[in-house]
Backbone:
């Protein structure tokens, strides 16, 4: 328990100091971190008193004024709005601060928000994927904005084609493919919503692109180096070892690891339920070494006061489950520690696939493990099996060097 006598919180925030400290401790903040938060609250309390303001006055503009003052006084830490989120959240939960009403969205943002809800609720896209679609089509929607709203009904096939061609000049080919997919989804949504009288989905040109390179998996020594880079005497090392083992052995996506729940693992039957793209749920066998890595983390690394049921938890308070970005950062950090450069989860997915291919697994079986919806997606790994492809090569013409 933090010694409040060492941090004097005065002014309007004084009555909330002890409760705020207890709240921080309960969600996993260390005593040092609690003290830092209380020191920030103490400074804010003094500033409010000097300005003649109360707690209820802590609106966004007032918070920004305080932070400007704090930066001007030479403080080097806790100088952004993010630093005050724990305190403001605590006060809002107590009812001391009003729930901030979001600003009225512009017609463009309102339309994009409806499109995003459609992608998630009707199409079953993940939140991150839906956000990416919205970002890609935003220039088209913004370009149709008028003083009265967004001119959707006046959109023509030529407008759609011209937009895609113009964007292709600045975007990578793979991104242009995603833009075409996002455009079709937007046009389909507008037609179903009644904003368009005629479906323009067919006016989106197909973008021909397939990566010329081979799927880049790690060799066995690289996987060993990656796993060995985790210090399993530390909680974060145990966690990262479990994450990397899941990725490299089962070929999971980073998002699938992030949303993995304790209840998704059936220890009695040795099975694991994966929540994949499009709200799919797939049941797969849990390999012994993967299960052992997870058990080791659950027994010796996972915080006992974790705030949710996700398997992999942040090492810094608040002790919530890792996000997809957190999984990505863990993989990248492990790659740098192992001397392999910056890696991403997809590289380990390729590693699992190529390992199965080298062990003699057919492409259909690999597609089942990777949970591909179409065989053509798995077919990319056929290019890796050079020994099987060798008999298909035509003989080199005689007399040519």
Residues:
């Amino acid at each position: 328990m933090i010694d409040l006598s060492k941090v004097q919180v005065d002014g309007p925030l004084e009555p909330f100091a002890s409760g705020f400290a207890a709240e921080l401790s309960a969600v996993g903040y260390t005593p040092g971190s609690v003290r830092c938060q209380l020191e920030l609250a103490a400074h804010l309390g003094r500033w409010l008193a000097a300005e003649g303001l109360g707690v209820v006055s802590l609106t966004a503009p007032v918070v920004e004024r305080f932070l400007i003052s704090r930066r001007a006084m030479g403080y080097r830490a806790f100088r952004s709005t993010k630093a005050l989120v724990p305190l403001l959240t605590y006060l809002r939960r107590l009812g001391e601060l009003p729930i901030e009403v979001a600003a009225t969205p512009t017609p463009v943002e309102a339309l994009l928000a409806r499109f995003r809800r459609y992608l998630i609720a009707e199409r079953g896209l993940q939140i991150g994927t839906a956000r990416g679609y919205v970002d890609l089509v935003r220039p088209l929607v913004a370009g149709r904005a008028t003083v009265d709203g967004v001119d959707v009904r006046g959109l023509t096939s030529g407008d759609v084609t011209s937009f895609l061609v113009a964007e292709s000049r600045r975007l990578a080919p793979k991104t242009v493919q995603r833009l075409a997919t996002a455009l079709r989804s937007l046009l389909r949504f507008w037609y179903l919503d009644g904003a368009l009288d005629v479906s323009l989905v067919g006016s989106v040109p197909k973008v021909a692109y397939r990566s010329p390179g081979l799927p880049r998996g790690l060799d066995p020594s690289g996987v060993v180096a990656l796993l060995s880079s985790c210090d399993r005497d530390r909680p974060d090392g145990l966690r990262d070892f479990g994450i990397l083992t899941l990725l490299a052995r089962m070929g999971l996506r980073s998002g699938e690891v992030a949303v993995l729940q304790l209840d998704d693992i059936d220890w009695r039957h040795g099975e694991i339920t994966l929540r994949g793209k499009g709200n799919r749920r797939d049941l797969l066998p849990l390999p012994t070494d993967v299960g052992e890595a997870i058990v080791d983390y659950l027994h010796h690394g996972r915080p006992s006061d974790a705030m949710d049921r996700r398997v992999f938890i942040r090492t810094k308070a608040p002790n919530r489950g890792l996000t997809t970005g957190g999984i990505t950062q863990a993989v990248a950090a492990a790659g740098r520690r192992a001397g392999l450069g910056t890696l991403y989860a997809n590289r380990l997915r390729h590693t699992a696939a190529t390992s199965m291919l080298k062990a003699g697994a057919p492409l259909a079986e690999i597609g089942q493990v990777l949970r591909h919806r179409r065989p053509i997606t798995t077919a990319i790994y056929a290019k890796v099996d050079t020994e099987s492809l060798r008999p298909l090569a035509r003989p080199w013409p005689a007399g040519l060097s």
Q: What stands out?
A: The first strand starts at residue 145 and ends at 146. Residues 4-93 form one domain.
